[in-house]
């Protein structure tokens, strides 16, 4: 039997087929769905580049330039941004915001959609062959112009998603009615539905944080991590595992796969007092996905989706994942019952056994 004969019919499960009902609705919903298809096309091109690795050139090489936040741009950062811009041409995208652009760009003044992207998340991991990704947010364009289209609560998003370039290329997407998982089929070069109604487990025993910054954290974060490290002999009465990939998309995908919580808090280092991740094109789309999957996302005290940015590249602390964990971390920030002196790592305390 030939490969063609054995191969299942995936046509009804393609991303395009799954978005047809939204496209048929017309209006902003239709425009957003068509924009997602264009973004998916760009991400297939990015996936092709990444799959070639060094054969595609020095993708992890510093270009000599820097993005608007001063971070060094890698060759793949620039190429990914160019591929997305090219894919959005001809869509209803009025305004485009990117980590790699100094300012909001106007693509089609008559368009009805605003798109914000981190074209290549985790680019420091390019040469290490660690999973990296693309994050995107789709908003309705505001009649008040470019700034008003993005300087609004994240709850106004029409769609959000990320593509992770790993052992396989996967798209995790919401258009406001749950979260779906799509896998790039190498044969057809289309994203094919693998799962619907993705849900983050309510409570798990994993957390992700860069523990090397412990000495810089605020007391609530230290206390939460201390209690996790204390394990079954500590106040939580259970053992926890720590994970840290240093790629937001990779951390997110693990949490969507098996639960847990991700913490990138503000800390006391210069430039980190307001957090480090960008609100518009990193935190907000991840938060939209997390809430749609039954999880939560906060800056420690306020839901990410309620925050209104005032600058394009505004930073925020980000804590997201399993609902129980996020709520507990918020408690460490706002509930006086959690206030107590900070103990050294591994010191036992006898309070608040969960």
Describe it for me?
The structure is a single chain. This protein has helices at residues 3-6, 15-25, 27-52, 75-88, 146-150, 219-229, 248-258, 279-292, 323-334; strands at residues 62-66, 72-74, 93-98, 105-106, 113-121, 132-140, 159-165, 169-174, 179-185, 190-195, 206-208, 241-243, 261-264, 277-278, 296-298, 315-316, 318-321. The chain has 354 residues and is an alpha+beta fold. The chain folds into two domains: 3-195, Fructose-1,6-Bisphosphatase, subunit A, domain 1 (Fructose-1,6-Bisphosphatase, Chain A, domain 1), CATH 3.30.540.10; 206-338, D-Maltodextrin-Binding Protein, domain 2 (3-Layer(aba) Sandwich), CATH 3.40.190. Helix 2 runs antiparallel to helix 3 (27-52) and helix 3 packs antiparallel against helix 4.
In short:
The chain folds into 2 domains: 3-195, Fructose-1,6-Bisphosphatase, subunit A, domain 1 (Fructose-1,6-Bisphosphatase, Chain A, domain 1); 206-338, D-Maltodextrin-Binding Protein, domain 2.
Task: Determine and state the CATH class of the largest domain.
Answer: Alpha Beta
CATH architecture annotation name of the largest domain: 2-Layer Sandwich
Q: What's the helical proportion of residues?
A: 25-40%
By DSSP, the count of extended strands is: 17
Gross morphology is globular
Look up the CATH topology of the largest domain: Fructose-1,6-Bisphosphatase, Chain A, domain 1
Order of helices and strands: HHHEEHEEEEHEEEEEHEHEEHEEEH
> What do we call the CATH homologous superfamily of the largest domain?
Fructose-1,6-Bisphosphatase, subunit A, domain 1
Distance, first to last CA:
57 Å
Spatially, the strands of the biggest sheet line up as: 4-3-5-6-7-8-9-10
Number of helices: 9
Range of strand content: 15-25%
């Amino acid at each position: 039997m030939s490969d063609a004969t054995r191969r299942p019919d995936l046509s009804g499960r393609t991303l395009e087929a799954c978005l047809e009902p939204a496209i048929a609705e017309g209006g902003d919903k239709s425009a957003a769905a068509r924009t997602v298809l264009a973004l998916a096309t760009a991400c297939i091109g990015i996936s092709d580049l990444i799959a070639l690795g060094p054969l595609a050139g020095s993708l992890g090489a510093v270009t000599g330039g820097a993005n608007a936040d001063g971070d060094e741009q890698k060759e793949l950062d620039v190429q990914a941004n160019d591929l997305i811009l090219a894919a959005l041409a001809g869509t209803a995208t009025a305004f485009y915001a990117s980590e790699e652009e100094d300012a909001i760009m106007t693509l089609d003044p008559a368009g009805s959609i605003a798109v914000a992207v981190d074209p290549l998340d985790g680019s420091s991991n390019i040469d290490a062959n660690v999973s990296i990704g693309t994050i995107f947010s789709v908003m309705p364009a505001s009649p008040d112009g470019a700034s008003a289209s993005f300087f609004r609560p994240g709850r106004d998003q029409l769609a959000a998603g990320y593509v992770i370039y790993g052992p396989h290329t996967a798209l995790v997407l919401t258009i406001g009615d749950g979260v779906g998982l799509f896998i790039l089929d190498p044969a057809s070069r289309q994203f094919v539905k693998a799962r619907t109604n993705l849900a983050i487990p309510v409570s798990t025993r994993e957390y992700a944080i860069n523990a090397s910054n412990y000495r810089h954290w605020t007391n609530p974060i230290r206390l939460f991590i201390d209690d996790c490290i204390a394990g079954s002999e500590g106040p939580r009465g259970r053992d926890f595992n720590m994970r840290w990939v240093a790629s937001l998309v990779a951390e997110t995908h693990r949490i969507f796969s098996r639960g847990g919580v991700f913490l990138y808090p503000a800390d006391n280092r210069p430039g980190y007092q307001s957090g480090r991740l960008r609100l518009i094109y990193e935190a907000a789309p991840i938060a939209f996905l997390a809430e749609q999957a039954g999880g939560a996302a906060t800056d420690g005290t306020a839901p990410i989706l309620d925050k209104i940015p005032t600058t394009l590249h505004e930073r925020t602390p980000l804590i997201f994942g399993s609902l129980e964990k996020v709520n507990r971390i918020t408690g460490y920030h706002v509930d006086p019952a959690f206030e107590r002196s900070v103990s050294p790592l591994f010191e036992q305390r006898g309070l608040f056994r969960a």
